[in-house]
């Protein structure tokens, strides 16, 4: 029989609500698993087992009936370490914030606390979310539970690895260009980037504010809907959060796709795509047709510009957003005799190479004389990319593509930044257009998971979940688990 | 022959808005307070906290724009102005770059009885920075400096004029008028000494008749209307001298030194920052609803120009009186309150503009700090009408009222300042004076009218100013 930590949220809810298991039992199973495998997986930067146990006890005291009224009651989860937690270290995997303890909770922490979920710890990421492999973390890389020699994807790699390794039941991450969906694909999980504005960014330590969006990493589509139910919604503290009503996302979980019109963007099957991934995606399309969907090829002609546009806009925003880390009010401060030297040494010593590279790129794109040619032009092309999607969605309910061009790679394999940036080829256009996307498992290549991406209209998370659920229920991919026990003795 | 130069001056004015809370968070905007007590994660620039725009700031900006005859943008946005300074917690300031909320307005000033329109280029909203508290005499000699973020994210309007002013006096009058308008709108305290009204001047010169602009310098650190005028006067002279001596005028920022009365180079344009402005991604752009603008237009209070017109029409005041009285909202309020209690507008105007303003200016006080209230002033004027005190005595009474805040009757009684109207008592004094000045009496009889004034003066002197001038005049005339 499966262990408690291996179960989904909905499976655990049945056991918890009926009183067959207690929150402490579920938590202990997770903590035990962490003890067992995290020395190898290294998903966590900070663990708070005592606080988690106290919370579990508190929830038990409420009684199971009262608990059952809260959507995620007693479910242990992990937060990407760029989500602020009051009184708990929040590092962004950077030396810069290695000692930063926020005096406030992010909106996500408030919502999950209100839903009576239990925070177990803060998960590793690429430094300030800048990366696709979690290798740029200033502290340590996280391993992929499917193969400890490989990366889990990034930047929400710690969150994904923790879920894939059954250390937690679900996790939250953030996604500015694929940071939830790439790790979901690499770790065989469901990862959703909601519509920009669907989930409050209050308390998310930003990488690129116009692209960042928080979302869930879960073991299946039903869990994704359950977490989304909890985290979605308007928040006056995030001016870009949109007051659109939150439906019950579980009501979309139907196995029928009759009449659903699906577009398959030609440009997403680009030369860098692993042919084996292409084959699996094509098989998935056939399955979607069997389920009643109509799949047709569609063109998104400006796709090839998305990657440079993404890197101009995200780095420009980051160069300014990260300017606040100067050693003056909080965070790392280098010793120096004067202000300018202190500033320079602080930033030189506390930022890693990828962060520095992006700050330099972004500063250049915004500088006088370059602004029109780079930043402004990128914004104009961003509009064209968005228009491509608008036109496609005039004909189709959904678009389908690969999530990542290949499977998880070995540590150090992509030393050239450009080859790393190409990982986001199919994911970052959605961030530019503010659209929701979900990655779900669609097969394996040599025991490594492959992800399928659904792309929807703004606020069509329900439709995405419907298609993802129908596909998932017709496959067994999501039931497979990495064989970590032999690796972690 | 020396060239005739013309000065070209434009002003950039920053005003702190007196909203209850800051522009992007709910901290109070109250001036003062212990360092770093009016702060939150937002205005401290902590990571993860997002700006949320205070609607009141937009409302105040629109009100200012309407009062300054501006076009109110239908579409406006915030931009990040990027620069590193320890008093700027995010190391970028949220400001407005290419799409400010108000553009293309004007303000009318009166200079030597002529009306002149000074163009308003733009008004934009932005957040204030914090303050550095240097631990030492000045920044250069300080051992270290502390950051106080109380002022961080207090809302500001930056009001940029066109380079339409041609003298230091025009610049001062423009700033005074601008201050008056903002006071009438009740959107700022406009206290230069507390920094809620700050002004930088761009100054250049050119030979009269030349159309192109000369190289400009930007003058900072002017903390009063007077220092603005002095600084600009100095800078115009300095530039003319440089030009005449064949020296180049460098585009630079210069600081006004109040003590030595000169401007000194602070930094040249070559060292200027590249602010890398770009649209603030954390705030959606604003669409300003026309109905809202219309509603605000309807709610606009009476502004200085309209009030001045009304003072001329309703109170029959001369242009000069009306201009001075309405240039300060508080002064105009004081005047109107006084008039409602003592309905002789010209007499009230003479006393307010003459004696009262003189006393206030001597003590460097605002009318709001005056211990003389409209009620007290009216009571005093009524004492003159009743004949209890003369106009001359009244000045002494007003001074005392100004010092002590006591009612005029109490002062009159306490100091024995009651006017002497008793004819028999005064006749004795008159006779003494006539006896003592036979020469003057003779002059008068020969037709020297002025001699009478001397004699009246002597009687007043003898009675320590308490004699009724009317009675004395009459008595003297009968005797002579």
Please provide a written account of the structure.
- The complex is a heterodimer of chains A (489) and B (480).
- With 489 residues, chain A is of the alpha/beta class.
- Chain A contains 16 helices and eleven strands.
- Helices cover 39% and strands 13% of the residues of chain A.
- Chain A has an eleven-stranded mixed sheet, with helices on both faces.
- In chain A, helix 8 (221-231) runs antiparallel to helix 16 (461-473) and helix 10 (303-321) crosses helix 13 (372-395).
- Chain B is elongated, with a radius of gyration of 29 Å.
- With 480 residues, chain B is α+β, with helices and mostly antiparallel strands.
- Chain B has three domains: 5-294, no CATH class; 302-415, no CATH class; 423-479, Orthogonal Bundle (Arc Repressor Mutant, subunit A).
- The model of chain B has no long low-confidence stretch (mean pLDDT 90).
- In chain B, helix 12 (423-436) packs across helix 14 (450-462), helix 13 (438-445) runs antiparallel to helix 14 (450-462) and helix 14 crosses helix 15 (469-479).
- In chain B, strand 12 (217-222), helix 3 and strand 13 (252-257) form a beta-alpha-beta unit.
- Chain B has a nine-stranded mixed sheet with strand order 2-6-7-10-1-11-12-13-14.
- Chain A binds chain B through residues 82-84, 92, 97, 100, 102-104, 106, 201-206, 208-210, 236-240, 316-317, 319-320, 323-326, 328-330, 339, 343, 363, 366-368, 371, 375, and chain B through 41, 44-53, 80, 82, 84, 86, 89-92, 147, 274, 276-278, 281-284.
